[in-house]
Amino acid sequence: MANKRARVMYDFAAEPGNNELTVNEGEIITITNPDVGGGWLEGRNIKGERGLVPTDYVEILPSDGKDQFSCGNSVADQAFLDSLSASTAQASSSAASNNHQVGSGNDPWSAWSASKSGNWESSEGWGAQPEGAGAQRSTNTPNNWDTAFGHPQAYQGPATGDDDDWDEDWDGPKSSSYFKDSESADAGGSQRGNSRASSSSMKIPLNKFPGFAKPGTEQYLLAKQLAKPKEKIPIIVGDYGPMWVYPTSTFDCVVADPRKGSKMYGLKSYIEYQLTPTNTNRSVNHRYKHFDWLYERLLVKFGSAIPIPSLPDKQVTGRFEEEFIKMRMERLQAWMTRMCRHPVISESEVFQQFLNFRDEKEWKTGKRKAEKDELAGVMIFSTMEPEAPDLDLVEIEQKCEAVGKFTKAMDDGVKELLTVGQEHWKRCTGPLPKEYQKIGKALQSLATVFSSSGYQGETDLNDAITEAGKTYEEIASLVAEQPKKDLHFLMECNHEYKGFLGCFPDIIGTHKGAIEKVKESDKLVATSKITPQDKQNMVKRVSTMSYALQAEMNHFHSNRIYDYNSVIRLYLEQQVQFYETIAEKLRQALSRFPVM
């Protein structure tokens, strides 16, 4: 049987020494092994070179050899998938091109300002958003997804048939070795693959898209009788309004000790991290794709009520460089800390199982149980019990509008600070140090010229000018290194909040959709489509949703106040120390000049 051929949809640069094949968009390759495993296939290019290529980077051509993008297809579903793949490839290519233009090796945030944190451009879009779980925006997905499918952040799930890969690669220490590699001189690493849609683990099942989704808020609002779930999420009224009930003891999770492991007899490599909850001090190991799985489960279960920010991007090339490993670990640490700080997420069964499984069997059992959880999407509200009287519809709508207005304004402010910070980072690591270096060299050159005069009385002056020049060269180094000590943390904090804020348009959309359903209930009662009791239940349930939104916003605000107070204080303290260091160096240079 002849080998199939495939068209390459994205550029892919092979990782040296990792049995991969470099391919370019539009290239036709021959598939020599379609299922190597782990989201990879083996291919051969026209030069006869063989190697591994991410499965999602290619499109298998029909058996007649014709490119399905250049010919018609009478099957409607196939046409849909064809247009999906074409638009995705075009958007990814455009995004990659834009990111390349603005990117800088010294600027780890160059890709952030090029992407949106949510569909804030049209407030009308909120009510029209899909109402199920997982309807959340990605901060890194090309804008075409916004208009084509409504919720680009929705995790597309592990590869179909990937369960065997999970079973083989459970988090045992047997295949790991300490990761040691040469340190990259590039502060941010050369990061590619910003679109999560192009990740090798990202298949595209149709049921993840709005057109194929089950009904949204109706499933919760119009249920004749809600089942009594075992898990309860209480909402109490505190000094600042509705709030989640916080556990009596809190914990964090330390992400550390990145190790390089291998599979497929050493053919493929990966990095896994050690996670140690502070309340148990018992460590477990997880790969990035396991974090991705956790993100998916949390998004599906809680995403209608709680913002679940996306993980740091999956990366195909450069993923074993030490600087990239360090950056990813730092961001995974921040993500895990956020989840640990949330009173609902941190106490959830799926999160606890992720941190506390004891062996392979327990991991598989917990994983499959989480994937079958029916209390997800809008049904998560059925587990919530406000200890407060029901709200009227006017108040519910006002609360929803207030949340939408604030989060939209904060999103604009965060994006502005990210843009300004990015520009400042580039200036501090590029033009500004060079200007100080030029001043330093110019002063030293002037001292050299003065020394050639042969005049005996100017030695002290020339030495002082030379030292002043060296001082400015030292200042240049200080300026170039300073952003890593202060601006870095401010930018990382803003990046985290950009991820949070990008989730709110869809959360608001879910709430607005529920409010509209309640407004329509009078007509449904009048036409005997629902009973007055059904309407009363709808009002009660949308009131529960409102309490949940207010409780989440109180949690959000308390974290926001703490985080920005901490990070801006740190920034200012470092800035003061930075300028004091420069002032001291200038005073020392000044003291060398003779008093005339």
Automatic annotation (TrEMBL):
The keyword Metal-binding does not apply. It holds the Pfam family PX. Residues 112-122, 136-146 have a biased composition (Polar residues). Residues 187-201 have a biased composition (Low complexity). PROSITE patterns: PX, SH3. It is a peripheral membrane protein. A 1,2-diacyl-sn-glycero-3-phospho-(1D-myo-inositol-4,5-bisphosphate) binds at R287, K289, R328. Residues 1-63 form the SH3 domain. Residues 251-362 form the PX domain. One of its GO terms (cellular component) is ruffle. One of its GO terms (biological process) is positive regulation of actin filament polymerization. It is found in: Cell membrane; Cell projection, Ruffle; Cytoplasmic vesicle membrane; Cytoplasmic vesicle, Clathrin-coated vesicle. InterPro entries: AH/BAR_dom_sf, PX_dom, PX_dom_sf, SH3-like_dom_sf, SH3_domain, SNX9_BAR, Snx9_fam, SNX9_PX. Residues 161-170 have a biased composition (Acidic residues). Residues 92-202 are annotated as: Disordered. It comes from the Eukaryota. GO terms for molecular function: 1-phosphatidylinositol binding; Arp2/3 complex binding; protein homodimerization activity; ubiquitin protein ligase binding. Keywords: Acetylation, Cell cycle, Cell division, Cell membrane, Cell projection, Cytoplasm, Cytoplasmic vesicle, Endocytosis, Golgi apparatus, Lipid-binding, Membrane, Mitosis, Phosphoprotein, Protein transport, SH3 domain, Transport, Ubl conjugation. Involved in endocytosis and intracellular vesicle trafficking, both during interphase and at the end of mitosis. Required for efficient progress through mitosis and cytokinesis. Required for normal formation of the cleavage furrow at the end of mitosis. Plays a role in endocytosis via clathrin-coated pits, but also clathrin-independent, actin-dependent fluid-phase endocytosis. Plays a role in macropinocytosis. Promotes internalization of TNFR. Promotes degradation of EGFR after EGF signaling. Stimulates the GTPase activity of DNM1. Promotes DNM1 oligomerization. Homodimer, and homooligomer. Heterodimer with SNX18. Interacts with ITCH. Interacts (via SH3 domain) with TNK2, WASL and ACTR3. Identified in a complex with TNK2 and clathrin heavy chains. Identified in a complex with the AP-2 complex, clathrin and DNM2. Interacts (via SH3 domain) with DNM1 and DNM2. Identified in an oligomeric complex containing DNM1 and SNX9. Interacts with FCHSD1. Interacts with ADAM9 and ADAM15 cytoplasmic tails. Belongs to the sorting nexin family. This is Sorting nexin. It comes from Mandrillus leucophaeus.
